[in-house]
Predict the structure of Transmembrane secretion effector.
Amino acid sequence: MVLAINIQATIVGWQVYELTGSVLDLGLVGLFEAVPSIVVSLYAGHLADLRDRRNIIVICLFFLLLCSLTLFAFTGPLSFLLETYKAYPIFLVILVSGIARGFISPAIFSFVTQLVPREHYPHSAAWMGTSFQAGAVIGPALGGIVYGSFGMQVAYGLDSLCIGLPFLLFFWINKRSLPERKEKEALKESLLKGLRFVLKNEIMLGAMALDMFAVLFGGAVALLPVYAKDILFVGSEGLGYLRAAPSLGALLMAYYLTYKPPLEKSGRVLLFCVFGFGVCMLVFGLSHSFLLSLAALFLSGVFDSVSVVVRSTIMQTMTPEEMRGRVSAINKVFIGSSNEIGAFESGVSAKFLGPVGSVVFGATMTILIVFFTFRLSPKLKELELKNWV
């Protein structure tokens, strides 16, 4: 699934930029993904605590497959729609995809903890990160290479094949009974209960807020097509490598963390890694060297992987079983959608500051946010995950 998502993101970014030549439209791709995802996330978390999580995942994968097949059709029988309406049909497909991804995230997070014993949560978080990053490494490079070598139609065909496979494979996973809820709650009370739980947990709230603002301001993924085409001059294949570089760094670090998860001085490690991520993005924003840009993105992935594993372990160990769907949905609003909103922020700021100015501004904001969090969240700063597992 991650492989398909990253292949698709690489192709869509390049296709939209070729269709319109607008950095703002690159940001709109993220916005059309994020808004529906945010709108449905809280209800999706409520649903994941009430209904069979595997069935929710299968239904969402079905709609993601339909979206991939529609993008594939835009390169053939439906190509006239792009000729007439430019990128707007693509935005519509991305909107539907955003709804599906809004529902699937809480279901997957909640389902995993039904499969894995509690004492293995830190290791499972690292293995999940390894699996995620493996797809994120291969997907962008593969998408860029296939697009550059065989064309957009073949690339979207590969995307459809990759999302179709997990759709079929999930039918082979046995269902798991849901944890019993102590009392029945109305929808509003159910959603508010999950929100109150997060707001009262200083460690969880601090980790979510730190990651949210870092991703919101620090990410530069939406502008990679601009860097590949107009600053580094490396084309669609180079774009694939630029997108893959942070994921390769994250993959290697995530694999290391499967053996040595950050259980000691976890809060300080988290803050240091988000700071390191901001510095890497600052270097990338100012670089005009392809190799230096790759190195900066690679190291940003290394730092990001550690923060993801720490935050995932915090959520898994501190969340009651019957509230996992709702807490995961809140995390999705905080973190998952900040990727797409961050893409929109990058597009808007690039419109006024230029692509380099946009990345430098975002990286500087990320570094400042780390200092604010260090001062304002003492419990997060002193966190030791070994005391929770």
About this structure: The mean pLDDT is 84.
